[in-house]
Design a protein that fits this description.
It is found in: Nucleus. With about 950 residues, the protein is mainly alpha-helical. The chain is built from 45 helices and two strands. The chain has a two-stranded antiparallel ribbon.
Length: about 950
């Protein structure tokens, strides 16, 4: 038997598997059962609904000003900081909030300026700086007294960081509103001295944190010179961590703030001469502060400070009595109620005696003799000498001859002069910070030493001993030893600015120098002036120094010195050259140079020196270059004069009045300026003003009246001006296009201005007849006028009237008719042709204008028969009128075409009618009555055959009958 087949034991698959239950475990929930239970929780968000819309203006965090101000009183420092930052964001987004709620903001911020947290103080200072930028003096002035009290409170705080931060806040107010702060700084000066005395003691007692001292000079322009505390810690600490180093840097920081304050209280010495120049326009925009009318009783404000005994009696005068307060209140004058400080000599003396020992200690402690000195220490040394300079300069006015001043001079020579000169860096790299700062220190030290010379140096032998190093430094500086010769000219401008601050010293020391030293120092100045760029500040200082040298020229000792006289001549000749180099880019310097030249010209004792600069002044107006292949007649170059403002142009022309006589080159330049205007040439997109031309005419006439101009030059000038109006030579190809594009108003305005100029010129010429015969005036004009009139007659130009007017102005008003015979025969022939040509063309142009009303040229055309008729009447021989009638007769039936003949006939008849109607020529026509009838009228009557011309002939005959009473 075979194997039986295996049985299939596999169970069929089930639709639902049932999991086995395990011992000790709960059964799984049935997945098919529906859960009907649920849970819920409430989410409460009070005041944080993003969708809520607020009526007031909000910042980035949707907070209003009310919300932010309320959080400034919070106990948490971070919330206060966020509130200050939120206010800053709010006013940057909506500036109107600041102007509407300035009082609320300022009154609330004052509570946190002395907060114990440094980050809160820092953010508050930034916010206040932003607010001050957005306000003005009048708006912020009510809050200055309040903030001054809080700043004074911060300066006396037990915590050092708060004391120093209060100085930073004071600096912010001084930067924006120094005048307002000066009214309320009477309490601050004693606090400064107290702070300096605290940190000037032993290093162990002056416990100042490293972060505060090391960041005293760290500035960030994006945050008004301040950085947050966490950023300050990341800065590289250049100072040592010893208490002595901390004390040193803290004193420097306090002195920087004090220096900024006393610069407001005292007059800062700026003897660079460039400051005088820069103050010209500053005075125009000066607006005085509106004085408050509130009465302030300061009687109890200074009782605490009297007890400090820093100044024995510095605040006594501020104890206002009731009588003084009542008097001030009744008169309304509150200026006396504002306390001030450092105004009287005694206050300044006490302040100086207190501060100078501190400055000397700091100078010695900084170690100026250390060769490896850092740049930060250099800046600190510069600060010390600047404060000393300010104090010495202010004391000089009151105590220059006192024992106090002599004592200060001894201390200065003992402690400061030993370290002079002070060099850090190299002249081969004049733009390095170390080299610039060290030379700034040297220049300030030299100025301080020069102040000790007094107004008139005495004891010259003793002075030369201690002052010789400073004198050598001045000479070396001017000779260029502070800047390597291999250095490019653009480098070293900062060094040159510092050197220019020494120029005022030369004026003081010149009397104490011998001839060789005077020669060397003045030649050194010439070298320095030549190395200065025309547009640099140092060049401006040189200009003012030249003015000072001119002013002291009358000194008997210096006037005998040839080197001094030579530098005066050189200085005067250099000023006109500088005018040409400046162009129109530096109006202030140009203005001051012209004032200097005027002051010299008005001084009759300097007339010879002044005459020497006339040729040098010519290129400032106009000049012509030498002949070349490209420019056979030379290139015409207009100087900076034509591009300057009108007031400076008048000032420049006034300088010409004081020359003993004007040469031909200068007269040519004035003619070129007038011609430029008449030809309507556009130079650098600027037209010469007609007012300037009128001023030039008055100037030339006045120069002739005072015998500073010959009559030949005067006639040549007048002739050239007249020909500038009439001549068409050298006219640009585009001039015609320009005239066609000009509007009617422009044409009318130009014609009116030209007529006014010509009227003034004719009046001036006519006034010459009071002392000169007509031959002396008219004969020089005859050749150019004959040539020009012939050209104008050929071109049928109406501008011949200008020449006719000028010729008629040469006649004597009382005897015009008898002077016609003095005119040359050649000029009379040309005049007869010109008179007919002008009158005939005037009639022709008038007829064409009537027929064509759209003719724009009619606005620029002159029709005036007054001058021609007066010239005709001036000829008693009647030759001129006969010649004109003969030309009219020849014009009849003259022409190449019939249309031209008809036009000439019409215009001739109209011209005769116009002449017959003239009352001035009535007697002349009566004397030549037969000639008119026999030749002129008969020819016209017989020649005219056209029907259109018959009515004109009839009108002419009617006018002749009226003329001859027929």
């Amino acid at each position: 038997m075979g194997r039986s087949k295996a049985k299939n034991t596999k169970q069929p698959s089930l639709d639902f598997k049932v999991k086995k239950k395990k011992l000790g475990k709960k059964p799984l929930p049935n997945p098919n059962v529906t859960v009907t239970t649920f849970k819920s929780k409430a989410l409460n968000m009070p005041g944080q609904n993003i969708a809520e819309e607020k009526d007031d203006l909000v910042n980035f965090r949707n907070l209003t000003l009310k919300d932010l101000l309320s959080k400034l009183s919070h106990y948490n420092d971070q919330i206060k900081k966020d509130s200050v930052t939120g206010i800053r964001d709010l006013i940057s987004l909506h500036p109107v909030v600041l102007h509407s709620h300035l009082g609320s903001i300022m009154n609330k911020l004052v509570e946190v300026i002395n907060d114990l947290d440094k980050d809160v103080r820092h953010c508050t200072h930034i916010l206040i700086g932003n607010i001050l930028k957005m306000t003005d003096e009048i708006t912020i002035s009510p809050f200055i007294p309040l903030y001054s009290v809080y700043i004074n409170s911060g300066m006396t705080h037990l915590k050092t960081s708060i004391r120093l931060d209060s100085l930073r806040l004071l600096d912010i107010f001084i930067d924006h509103f120094p005048k307002l702060v000066s009214r309320h700084c009477h309490q601050m000066i004693p606090n400064y001295i107290d702070l300096l005395k605290r940190v000037s003691g032993s290093a162990t007692t002056a416990t100042v944190s490293t972060s505060t001292s090391s960041t005293a000079t760290i500035q960030d322009p994006s945050t008004n010179g301040l950085k947050p505390a966490n950023a300050q810690k990341k800065q590289k600490n250049t100072a040592t961590s010893t208490p002595k180093a901390n004390s040193l840097h803290t004193r420097v920081f306090i002195l920087k703030s004090l220096y900024k304050l006393i610069q407001v209280l005292l007059v800062k010495p700026d003897l660079s001469f460039a400051s005088l120049l820069n103050s010209i326009h500053r005075q125009q925009y000066h607006t005085p502060i509106v004085e408050s009318k509130l009465l302030v009783n300061n009687q109890h404000a200074f009782q605490v400070y009297q007890e400090k005994k820093i100044f024995s009696s510095i605040f006594n005068k501020y104890n206002l009595k009731n009588e003084a307060a009542k008097a001030a209140s009744a008169s309304g004058d509150t200026q006396a109620l504002y306390p001030t400080i450092l105004e009287t000599p005694d206050e300044l003396k006490q302040f100086s005696l207190t501060l100078l020992p501190i400055l000397i200690d700091l100078w010695l402690e900084l170690g100026p003799s250390n060769p490896g000195i850092s740049f930060q220490i250099l800046e600190d040394l510069e600060l010390v000498v600047n404060i000393v300079h300010l104090i010495v300069h202010c004391l000089k006015e009151f105590f220059s001859t006192s024992e106090l001043y002599k004592g200060i001079r001894k201390d200065y020579i003992k402690y400061f002069s030993g370290h002079f000169p002070f060099y850090v860096g190299s002249a081969s790299n004049p733009d390095s910070k170390e080299w610039i700062t060290s030379n700034s220190i040297n220049c300030v030290m030299t100025q301080i030493a020069s102040h000790f010379l007094g107004f008139n140096p005495t004891d010259l032998d003793q002075v030369r001993d201690w002052y010789s190093p400073f004198l050598e430094y001045i000479e070396d500086s001017l000779n260029g030893k502070l800047i390597d010769e291999k250095v490019e000219g653009r480098q070293g401008q900062a060094i040159k600015n510092h050197i220019s601050n020494l120029l005022w010293i030369i004026k003081v020391i010149l009397p104490m120098l011998d001839k060789d030293q005077t020669f060397n120092i003045l030649n050194a100045f010439i070298k320095f002036d030549e190395n200065c760029h025309p547009h640099s500040t140092s060049k401006k200082s040189c200009v003012f120094f030249i003015k000072e040298l001119i002013d002291i020229q009358s000194n008997s000792t210096l006037s005998k010195d040839k080197s001094f006289k030579n530098i005066i001549d050189w200085g005067l000749s250099s000023l006109p050259k500088l005018l040409w180099k400046l162009g129109n880019s530096d109006i202030d310097t140009t203005l001051m140079i012209l004032n200097i030249l005027l002051s010299v010209g008005k001084d009759k004792t300097k007339i010879k020196q002044y005459d020497l600069i006339q040729n040098a002044l010519v290129p400032f107006f106009f000049t012509i270059t030498k002949e070349s292949e490209k420019f056979p007649n030379g290139r015409q170059i207009y100087g900076p004069f034509i591009n300057l403002p009108l007031n400076i142009q008048f000032l420049a022309l006034n300088t010409l009045y004081y020359f003993s006589s004007l040469n031909k080159i200068m007269i040519r330049s004035l003619i070129a300026i007038c011609r430029c205007m008449y030809k309507n040439k556009i130079i650098n997109n600027k037209d010469i003003s007609f007012e300037v031309i009128s001023f030039i005419l008055d100037l030339i006439h006045n120069l002739y009246l005072v015998n500073n101009l010959s009559i030949s030059h005067y006639i040549a000038f007048s002739t050239a001006i007249t020909l500038s109006i009439t001549s068409n030579e050298n006219q640009d190809a585009n001039d015609t296009d320009i005239e066609m594009k000009e509007s009617d108003e422009t044409l009318i305005k130009r014609k009116e201005n030209t007529d006014n100029i010509l009227a003034k010129l004719c009046w001036n010429i006519n006034s010459l007849r009071l002392s000169n015969p007509i031959q002396d005036i008219l004969e020089p004009m005859t050749p150019p006028f004959i040539n020009e009139l012939n050209k104008l007659n050929e071109s049928n130009s109406h501008k011949s009237l200008y020449i006719l007017t000028l010729i008629y102005s040469t006649f004597n008003n009382n005897n015009q008719e008898d002077e016609f015979i003095n005119i040359s025969k050649d000029l009379i022939k040309v005049l007869q042709v010109t008179l007919f040509t002008y009158m005939f063309n005037s009639i022709k142009h008038e007829s064409n204008t009537i027929n064509n009303s759209n003719n724009n040229n009619s606005l620029d055309y002159i029709k005036d028969f007054n001058i021609p008729i007066l010239l005709i009447k001036s000829d008693k021989s009647n030759q001129t009128i006969l010649n004109i009638l003969n030309q009219i007769s020849n014009k009849v039936n003259h022409g190449s075409t019939q249309i031209e003949k008809n036009n000439n006939n019409q215009f001739s008849i109209l011209l005769l009618i116009e002449l017959f109607r003239s009352k001035e020529l009535y007697e002349d026509f009566q004397s030549i009555k037969s000639t008119i009838k026999s030749s002129v009228l008969k020819k016209i009557e017989s020649s005219v055959k056209e029907v259109s011309e018959k009515h004109l002939v009839e009108k002419l005959l009617l006018e002749s009958k009226l003329l001859f009473n027929e």
